[in-house]
Amino acid sequence: MPPEEFSELIPSSKNSPLPPLQSSSSRQAEADVARMVQTGLQDLLAQRQALQQEIEQLERRRDRIKAEMRTTFAGASQELSVRLQGFKDYLVGSLQDLATAAEELDLAPAPPAPTVNQTTQPMAQEAIPSTPAFSNQRFEEQRERVRSLIDQYRTRPDYYGPPWQLRRTFEMVHADRVSNWFFNQGGRGAVKSLGSRLQNVLVASGAISVLYAIYGDRLCNLVLANTPERLGEWRRWLQDCLGVTRGDFGANQGITLFESPEAMIQRAERLLDNGYLPMIIIDESEDKLPLAALQFPLWLIFAPDPANPSQDNYYY
Questions:
Q1: What pTM does this model have?
Q2: For strand 298-303 and strand 277-282, is the pairing parallel, antiparallel, or unpaired?
């Protein structure tokens, strides 16, 4: 190829246009855009971080609410179940007592009057004093019997003993309260509550067991509490502590439950007139002491302890 033609193929520098130089205004615009993008990105990152913190707070709150719902509903359900069970025990026992009393009704003609040699009230012939005096030094033999029984319950518990004998662990705190009630208060006084109904029933069971060992079937225990649920607990735990059955509860049996102090006082007066020995037991929940109860030879009242408030929520 001739040099002339080859030179024509090479573009001349005069004819080829050069790219225009970037102006200062366009560089400024690009810098402004970059700053805007950077600022917007920082705002988005800050918003994202704030949202993450709010999400974490909401998740913690959700977990706390779930935990509260589980504990609150579970506790309420358990408390309701225990209260219903106590009411059921009281109601079933009351119906059984009513059925037993109906069966014992004598609808036949009255039998002939007994002769002079017949005994109408064998209980009145017993030589046991009608009024206990455990704090009196003249009854030292009886006092030693009480001490021996309390010591036996504390040191040699018999979990399979006969009915009316204490069948549960009897610790020093229970023995001290029972001993003080017998010897310092003479079987008539208030005992400081142990903070739960179960522990109070154990103290009352110890006293009942000692008295039953001395007086036998003459002893009639009258328990006063102001709700069917509390009476249901007394019934269930007395059965557990003393080994008695539902047949031992009722109008003419060893243990009678009352919601009304008036009805309890009337029953105690009739029992005393018929030669029996009524023992009145008043639950800690009773806020008013029936003064008429103080006329009887045996009464045990559980008084609230300010230093150890009662947990009357059915957990023991």
A1: 0.60
A2: parallel
The tokens for 112 are 């002939």
Distances (CA, A) of 163 to 142, 178, 199, 228, 297: 21, 19, 20, 25, 24
The Cα 309–Cα 260 span in angstroms is 24
How many CB atoms lie under 10 A from the CB of residue 93?
A: 20
> For residue 121, which amino acid is it?
Q
Token pair 């979990």: residue: 159
Both tokens of 50, joined, read 């704030």
Confidence of residue 177 (pLDDT cuts 50, 70, 90): very high
> How many residues are present in the chain?
316
262-288 pLDDT, tens digit per residue, is 999 999 999 999 999 999 999 998 877
* Distance, CA of 150 to CA of 155 (rounded, Å): 9
